[in-house]
Amino acid sequence: MSKKIINASGKRKMAIARATIKEGKPWVKINNVSLDIYEPRMAKLRIQEPLLLAGDVVKKLSISVNVYGGGMTSQADAVRLAIAKALADYNESLRQVFLDYDRQLLVADVRRRESRKPNSHGKARAKRQKSYR
Predict the structure, then answer these.
(1) Is 110 among the domain residues?
(2) C-alpha span between 72 and 119 (Å, rounded)
(3) Which of 6, 7, 34, 123 has the maximal Cβ count within 10 Å?
(4) Can you give the pTM of this predicted structure?
(5) Omega of the bond prior to 50 within 30 degrees of 0, cis?
(6) Which positions ≥6 away from 76 have C-beta within 8 Å?
(7) Segments forming the whole domain that contains residue 34
(8) 13-33 residues labelled b (16+ CB within 10 A) or e (exposed)
(9) Span 36-54, mean pLDDT?
(10) Neighbours of 122 (CB within 10 A)
(11) Phi, psi at residue 49, to the nearest 5°?
(12) How many structural domains comprise the chain?
């Protein structure tokens, strides 16, 4: 019997995370850094939410996540989304638990950065002031 391997991805702003879940020794690594020593603390707590909701299911899984792009907060949200989607694929009963807790665990936030416009001196909408005197 081969081990069940599940891949899932999550996006938030410019951050993209790819999670791989397989049965085995229980650990969670983000970019080869253990979740136990992951910083900052708020990002670590956000990432732990789907793991705490899953409960005993996580105790027999190895979770590896690669994430790049964006800032610390958007990377944490992308990792959270990828882990939750992979866990929901692994155990279908977790899907409703995640949706009841927070819809953002399974549904990506599609908002992106607004592109800059001409004559805008660094902002998306602010225009250069005109003086006719």
Answers:
(1) no
(2) 31
(3) 6
(4) 0.89
(5) no
(6) 42, 43, 44, 46, 47
(7) 5-105
(8) bebbbbbbbbeeeeebbbeee
(9) 93
(10) 6
(11) -55, -55
(12) 1
Q: How confident is the model at residue 133 (pLDDT cuts 50, 70, 90)?
A: confident
pLDDT band with cut points at 50, 70 and 90 for residue 1: very low
**Nearest of 96, 13, 23, 105 to residue 64 by alpha carbon:** 23
Distance of CA 104 to the CA centre of its chain: 9
Q: What is the pLDDT of residue 64?
A: 96
Residue 111 · residue 118 · CB < 8 Å: no
Percentage of residues of the chain with pLDDT beyond 90: 77
Alpha helices per DSSP H over 1-133 = 41-54, 72-90, 94-101
How many angstroms separate the CA atoms of 7 and 56, rounded? 20
Rounded Cα distance, 117 and 109, in Å:
24
d(CA 8, CA 101): 20
Of 13, 20, 73, 16, the residue nearest 47 (C-alpha): 73
